[in-house]
Amino acid sequence: MRKVSIALAGAAVVATLAGTSAFADGHLEKAIEARNAQMKLYSWNLGMLGGMAKGTVEYDAAKASAAASNLAALSAMSSQGMWPEGSDSFAMEGKTRAMPEIWTTYPAISEKGAALKDAAAKLAEVAGNGLDALKGGVGDVGKACGDCHKQFRMPK
Questions:
Q1: Which of 130, 154, 126 minimizes the C-alpha distance to 140?
Q2: I need a surface site. Which of 30, 87, 88, 151 has the fewest CB within 10 A?
Q3: pLDDT in tens, 106-142
Q4: Phi/psi at 13 (nearest 5 deg)?
């Protein structure tokens, strides 16, 4: 439960940064920082769950449930303020890998976000119910992440 609280507090900080920075100088950089922080929290939690699913991290129902709940909370929070137009990899070279297509193909990006939110919510329901349940749910979350990254993130 403590991990969920820490993740939610982090998400609240990220959301606050995004919301208050939209009107200040440097708002594009702050928006990029906020969304990068959100992505790092996704990565941290999904990395733990993926490790359990692959067998490189011992399955622990409580930890799996907490990490999956964190993912569900992160995917449910509004991130609109973190994605101002002009904060793409061409306009902000070296600061982000977000492709400008994010802003020209709407609502595709919104549909990708909804897919992640749905997959994370389903994972949160089953992650603590055993390794087999976790494996099924992690794959759907990973697919949702990958679908968005393939279409809207510049390769390294």
A1: 126
A2: 151
A3: 888 889 999 999 999 999 999 999 999 999 999 999 9
A4: -65, -45
